[in-house]
Amino acid sequence: MPTAILTGPPVPGSPLEGDLRSLGFDVRYVGPDADAAEQITKLLDGAPAGERVALVDPRFVGHVHSLRLALTDPRFPAAAAPGALTAQPEARAALAHAVRGADGGAGPDAVAAALDASGTAVQRPELGSLVAVVATEEDEREQARAAVAAVDEEAVRLRTAVKSRDGFFTTFCISPYSRYLARWCARRGFTPNQVTTASLMTALIAAGCAATGTRGGYIAAGVLLLFSFVLDCTDGQLARYSLQYSTMGAWLDATFDRAKEYAYYAGLALGAARGGDDVWALALGAMVLQTCRHVVDFSFNEANHDAESNTSPTAALSDKLDSVGWTVWVRRMIVLPIGERWAMIAVLTAVTTPRIVFYALLVGCALAALYTTAGRVLRSLTRKARRTDRAAQALADLADSGPIAQAVAARGPRLKGAWTAPAVAFTGAAALVATALTQPFGSRQVIIAAVFYAVLSGIAVARPLKGALDWLVPPVFRAAEYGTILILAARSEVNGALPAAFGLVSAVAYHHYDTVYRIRGGTGAPPQWLVRTIGGHEGRTLVAVVLATLLAARNTDLTLALTAFAVAVALVVLVESTRFWVSSGAPAVHDEGEPA
Q1: ∠ CA 429-435-441 to the nearest 5 degrees?
Q2: Are the C-beta atoms of residues 573 and 530 closer than 8 Å to each other?
Q3: Mean pLDDT of the chain
Q4: Helices 247-274 & 354-382, crossing angle to 10 degrees?
């Protein structure tokens, strides 16, 4: 149990001790007749190892949620509000040192200042209209109590449970009631991870309904997909409402979003097949396009993670547009975030056919990709910024280079030039895709193109990716790998090849998303042995091309080979990923970024 230490005798009539106990703290207090710093040090030493500790001024007056925000958020090693300070186990040694060396006594505010001065960052949450003060006189206490009574704490807590930046559909059609569902879950002891799992189960049932191929199944699928999205919003709101952030939760939330969407694509394709319409190529195309869109987002954000604020004309125009209310929502809708995308999919599923759903998805995602990519290219070209080593390493990890590309990068030429890396990567990718499209299926020319692509991939990453447009390298690699697998399966005209290719791309995409979430969580990319084992992007592409060529020449079914390849990749990445996230010591995180 965490320990809260009142830095002086309790104030008569104060509810502080009960508030702290309601937050799960074992409350101790410093007596009036001894050195406060010495007593606090002894109490810190006696607190259970591996638990957080808090220092609270007994004269604190404020909302319980102010204490909750300051003392229970698991994302930060140390956090504080006026009159309250907490430290997680990793910051307890620094806290004890700060108590002994704090100027102005051992009160929470003085100790927090000493922690900051010693280099331990202290998070100070935005309290807004919530009250958190140290009242030294009775009249101050009365004024503070009046201020507390004047604010509806629960309304503030519900409002702040909603993500501050979200899409139009989510903000206006889901969040107004999903926040109350989050509160209902919190009061009944449900965790965000349980709600996330319920959202996944609901989406999988929706995919099963779509796979029936009946109108009733499609209507049920659309309704269930929307309810799955409501639960998807609820889990994050529950995490913010009750501050139940966790590394596992962030991973599950992000991973399950992709699993739900792609499983639903598969369900639609199965349902269409029952009606005699083969849309597997469209389903795989939609998954490829959507995944490449995400890689563009991730790469650009990682490339600019440590960069200074953008003063380019493009950024200035963007800021100007964001100053007008309606343009903000239009721009958020144009990028087709998850809320708008799932609403479109759900409605079209219920009233049209799977083919129309995929046509709409492909057109909408293509326009969104053009809009976002063009804007980011313009920002990058007009921005004066130097990429850091951290950003270059993140892009190298996102590139997912295997043994062939790594060998070429180590021994091959290191070309100079600001645009060399993306130009070389694009040349190799374009040559491979064009060859796969134009040459007869099974042609050895495709193998030559795949080898050429692998060599150019190594040359592209031979130097640190610090150029203005080097963030384009990972998405180019993703488009080449996924696109080649799609083209080969579609042109093979082998029964079941496209569903098998869908499974292979799904397994590889999971690995790429897992890489992103590890980097975002501050734990680095997956281990090199894993990347080498599954071949890297160029190795997997070469294997797929060789399999297609050999099996075409022998008139053998390609489906079994692609299925076996998909299962092998999935087993390796899923086992290692699950092991990592279950045992990870990464700090608790929660995605508050752009709507995916």
Answers
A1: 130
A2: yes
A3: 91
A4: 140
126 φ/ψ sector (left φ>0, alpha ψ -120 to 50, else beta): beta
On whether the CB atoms of residues 54 and 86 are closer than 8 A, the answer is: yes
CA distance 158 to 177: 10
- Chain Cα centroid distance, residue 138: 48
The runs of H, that is alpha helices, within 323-401 are: 325-334, 338-351, 354-382, 389-399
Q: Given this model, what pLDDT does residue 9 score?
A: 87
Of 111, 97, 1, 100, the C-alpha closest to 57 is 111
Query: Per the structure block, which two tokens stand in for 538?
Result: 């160029």
Query: Which tokens belong to 278?
Result: 């083969």
Q: In sequence order, what are the residues at sequence separation of 6 or more whose Cβ sits closer than 8 angstroms to the Cβ of residue 410?
A: 462
Pairing of β 26-29 and β 3-6: parallel
Report the pLDDT averaged over residues 284-304: 94
Q: Are 35 and 12 in contact, with CB atoms under 8 Å apart?
A: no
Distance separating alpha carbons of residues 150 and 131, to the nearest angstrom: 10
Interior CA angle at 248 toward 578 and 230, to 5°? Answer: 115
- CA 183: distance to chain centroid? 23
Q: How far apart are CA 539 and CA 526, in angstroms?
A: 17
Give the side-chain half-sphere CA count within 13 A for 208. Answer: 6
d(CA 244, CA 254): 16
Q: How many residues does the chain have?
A: 596
Q: Are strands 132-134 and 60-62 parallel, antiparallel or unpaired?
A: antiparallel
Cα distance from N-terminal residue to C-terminal residue, the chain: 37
The tokens 């104030």 sit on which residue?
A: 11
pLDDT of residue 164: 78
Confidence of residue 593 (pLDDT cuts 50, 70, 90): very low
- In order of 248, 395, 461, 525, 572, the CA distances from 516 in angstroms are 15, 10, 18, 8, 17
Is residue 22 predicted with pLDDT exceeding 90?
Answer: yes
Kindly report each contact of residues 287-291 with a partner whose C-beta sits within 8 Å and lies 24 or more positions away, as own/partner.
287/262, 287/482, 287/502, 287/505, 287/506, 287/509, 288/479, 288/482, 288/483, 288/486, 288/505, 289/361, 289/362, 289/365, 289/366, 289/369, 290/261, 290/361, 290/365, 291/478, 291/482, 291/505, 291/509, 291/512
Q: Which of 527, 518, 403 has the alpha carbon at shortest distance from 461?
A: 403
CA 524-579-474 angle, to 5 degrees, is 35
